[in-house]
């Protein structure tokens, strides 16, 4: 790979304190927690009923108990956790005098664990913790364990909640929301359903892809992004088609998720994410499905911004561009992403998921207003009119 960056670039990188990765890594949770949090003996396990019922928390609980922890369970997490749910979980954490917060599950369980950890030792209401860098002091020690490969919430400092007073999603982040320990055990992701594997996998792929193209992309993020693009595109079909018989592909997917998630910690995301939110909200699409639909159309728009990087994406995805011009090789990356989504059974157009063209002007306004930070980070400048055109081309 040639170098795409300026040597004068200043970049920064933030991560959890400790990451433990590998098949069976969950068995280490007790000894790691005892070593990292001396004096603590009461853990609150935050999860949902599906994850608990499937036995995915059993090994963690056994390991913690063996190391002297008492484990109290909160299993009521729902998607896009509402404030009322956070309040309930918080009340339990305080009543039980919890010392360690443990989030096991998908992004919603981990995001609930983040906010509960931040709020538990203090008395402020939730509004004091919402937004960018509003959490300004450490909360309770926390451990995150994903049972899906996709959101990367276990390695991020972002938490997405639903303000059920106004029925709106609120995205917040703070360095104090990073975990102390993230345990990524691919065996826990084996039972992910095919649809979730496909959609959350495409979200993870978009993190690797977008982070490679943003204006903040840098030597460190480029290295992680490239590896993420390569590993996810090579393994996602097998993880999708072979289900529980694909530990090697699941392992690779978990690793690819790490690469993409780490990369966006440094270089951020762009217009694929900015444009996915309004249709996802309006038509009740999963984040991964909305991402997958918008990605090729945003790629087409952004393509002239960096042909060499697009050609590198195509190459990482296994496309042979040896006899092609740089522009032609770059174009094959868009086709490769379209083919990937098609192989995973994900619709390719907004009309396929019930979108109406008359909604698009409002969507474009929302993108400019609410996701200006992602728009500013996009590799090609975007006006409201440009965004409208992208929605129309995706229809
Ligand atoms: Fe995403």
What does this entry look like structurally?
- The chain has helices spanning 29-36, 49-53, 58-66, 83-95, 107-119, 194-213, 219-242, 247-267, 271-283, 287-302, 307-316, 326-343, 360-370, 372-377, 384-394; strands at 18-21, 42-46, 70-74, 100-105, 142-146, 158-163, 168-173, 181-184.
- The chain is of the alpha/beta class.
- It folds into two domains: 18-188, Rossmann fold (3-Layer(aba) Sandwich); 194-394, Dehydroquinate synthase-like, alpha domain (Up-down Bundle), CATH 1.20.1090.10.
- The protein has a six-stranded parallel beta sheet with strand order 1-8-5-4-2-3, with helices on both faces. A two-stranded antiparallel ribbon has the order 6-7.
- 53% of the residues are buried.
- It binds fe (ii) ion.
- Fe (ii) ion is lined by residues 203, 206-207, 273, 287, 291.
- In angstroms, what separates the terminal alpha carbons? 35 Å
Lateral strand order in the biggest sheet:
1-8-5-4-2-3
Helix-and-strand structural type: alpha/beta
Strand content bin? 5-15%
Mean pLDDT over the full residue set: 94
Text of the CATH class of the largest domain: Mainly Alpha
CATH H-tier superfamily of the largest domain: Dehydroquinate synthase-like - alpha domain
Measured as a percent range, the helix fraction is: 40-55%
Short description:
The protein is an alpha/beta fold and 395 residues long. The protein contains 15 helices and eight strands.
